[in-house]
From TrEMBL:
It comes from the Eukaryota. The gene is Dmoj\GI10326. Residues 72-146, 172-194, 283-344 are annotated as: Disordered. It is found in: Nucleus. One of its GO terms (molecular function) is RNA binding. Residues 118-332 form the Ribosomal RNA-processing protein 14/surfeit locus protein 6 C-terminal domain. The keyword Nucleus applies. Keywords: Nucleus. This is Ribosomal RNA-processing protein 14/surfeit locus protein 6 C-terminal domain-containing protein. One of its GO terms (cellular component) is nucleolus. GO terms for biological process: ribosomal large subunit biogenesis; ribosomal small subunit biogenesis. It holds the Pfam family SURF6. InterPro entries: Rrp14/SURF6_C, SURF6. The lineage of its organism: Eukaryota, Metazoa, Ecdysozoa, Arthropoda, Hexapoda.
């Protein structure tokens, strides 16, 4: 066990324990870890069998095994051999460690070179990017932040002053040089115009009220087509009567006034309902709608009554069942106590 390091010993003990107890380790190894493990195993085998690390070592130790011309060399030959084997082992162990360190250094160097190449491949920084970086650096510093805050406040105050000057809140005073400066002491308040209302208590936005009839309220047109039809029939009957009596001038005046009234109503945006056919159609439609609504209402009423009766019936059944259950419970208790009750 002198050739095995502590890490290998721990791994071997763990593997042995897992095999004995039937524990399976689900390890997902990378190619790098597999290569490292293989290199370690090879290195251990080389150390165990005293294999020289490189050809240079062989050249150095080759002369030790040759016979010398001196007589004293025969005595010290065995001691030299022992010493050389121990030195070999130490050298091999140290060389292995150095080799691992060199490999790690080589990997780091490669990574660094790849990173440098990647940086070189990137496009050169533009002026806009440089400005952004500089702005970020400036923002990070606390002193610059304070300066920015103070400058922002100053700008805000200046904007407020300019707005007041435009609206006429602050009065300007001419300076010695002829420049105008705001006079903060004297403040002129703008005159607030009060809203003007007309006779209908509505706001008038212009100076003149353009309402058609400023005093009187506009009457709404009749919505009921029956009443409109009735009025139309009455007017037509009146005109016919005047014509029969020989008063054709009055009849013409009446017709003219009706025509003017229709024209004014159209200008005001009112609907002129003077077509008898359309009015009759509307009356018919209203009657159909009434019938449908009546039918729906009756159906709804029947449904509501049916639901009430159903719920009432269910309630009554539940109450009867409850009373029966109470009686049966009492009778069962009495029969258990010793009373003779038929059926229990």
């Amino acid at each position: 066990m002198e050739y095995f390091d502590a890490e290998y010993a721990v791994e071997s003990i763990r593997e042995k324990y897992n095999k004995e107890h039937g524990i399976k380790e689900c390890k997902v190894e990378d190619d790098y870890t597999k290569r490292k493990r293989f290199e370690k195993q090879v290195y251990r085998l080389l150390i165990m069998h005293n294999v020289p690390y490189s050809k240079k070592d062989e050249k150095k130790t080759f002369e030790e095994y040759l016979l010398s011309d001196d007589e004293n060399t025969s005595k010290t030959k065995g001691a030299k051999l022992k010493h050389s084997t121990k030195a070999k082992r130490r050298n091999n162990h140290n060389a292995g460690k150095e080799h691992e360190m060199k490999e790690e250094e080589d990997v780091d160097e490669r990574i660094a070179s790849i990173k440098n190449k990647m940086r070189q491949k990137k496009r050169p920084t533009t002026e806009r990017q440089q400005k952004r970086r500089e702005a970020k650096k400036l923002k990070r510093s606390k002193g610059v932040q304070k300066l920015l805050q103070s400058s922002a406040k100053i700008m805000k105050n200046e904007n407020i002053k300019q707005n007041k000057l435009k609206n006429g809140v602050i009065k300007t005073v001419s300076n010695k040089d002829g420049e105008e400066e705001p006079d903060s002491k004297s403040k002129i308040q703008p005159i607030q115009q009060k809203p003007v209302f007309n006779e209908e208590s509505k706001i008038v936005y212009s100076k003149i009220d353009f309402a058609a009839t400023p005093g009187a309220k506009t009457k709404k047109s009749h919505k009921n087509p029956k009443e409109i039809l009735k009025e139309l029939k009455q007017t037509s009957q009146q005109i016919n009567e005047l014509k029969e009596q020989g008063q054709s001038d009055k009849a013409a005046e009446l017709q003219n006034s009706i025509a003017w009234k229709k024209a004014f109503d159209k200008i005001e945006g009112k609907k002129v309902k003077d077509d008898t056919k359309l009015l009759q159609k509307a009356i018919k439609k209203k009657k159909v709608e009434k019938r449908a609504a009546k039918k729906k209402w009756e159906e709804r009423k029947q449904k509501v009554d049916h639901d009430i009766a159903k719920r009432q019936k269910k309630r009554q059944e539940n109450l009867d069942k409850r009373s029966k259950d109470k009686k049966n419970k009492k009778l069962k208790k009495a029969s258990k106590k010793g009373r003779i009750i038929p059926g229990y």
